[in-house]
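Contributing new records

If you add data, match the layout below exactly. Sequence lines come first and carry their own label; structure lines follow with theirs. Keep one chain per record. Anything else will be rejected by the validation script.
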Amino acid sequence: FLEFVKSSKANLTGALKQNKDIVFVMGHKNPDTDAITATLFEAWRNHLLDGKYVTYLPIVQNYKIPDEVRRLFGDVISDNILLDTEDLYKEAKQSGIVRWISVDQNREPDVQKYFISIIDHHVISDIAQFQDIPKTLEMVGSSTSLIAQKFFGVGLDFDANLCKLLYGATL
């Protein structure tokens, strides 16, 4: 997990140079620990399952990592999370080879038409309801818990340190 997050920016640079498919996993514009944890873990899960063919990357919609997230994840991980204000993200967004997985949100007008899936625990928007894409929508718990279930569903497991991060996101 740590190496995945630390290599995110280098992987994005490489994918752009190789014209490789890119999928950003992105939470809502007022990111909290649930949105960011769900973003990180869903990007990592997809990377583990399909990273040979597609570059999956977490993206946070904010100019900085919130303090509570930094306390949970520490400086090394927090400093390596790509923000939507960074030039590298803006370049990728304009490349025409990017799609998005939406987590902890289901309405994002700027890139909604490029969503390939939605994982959310909020009330579904009218637009998302009628999008013909895979959706995991349960209005209970947290988006992080929905993603943890997806890990277990494919036989992946967590060590104690990763469990603390997942649990910390729900608090």
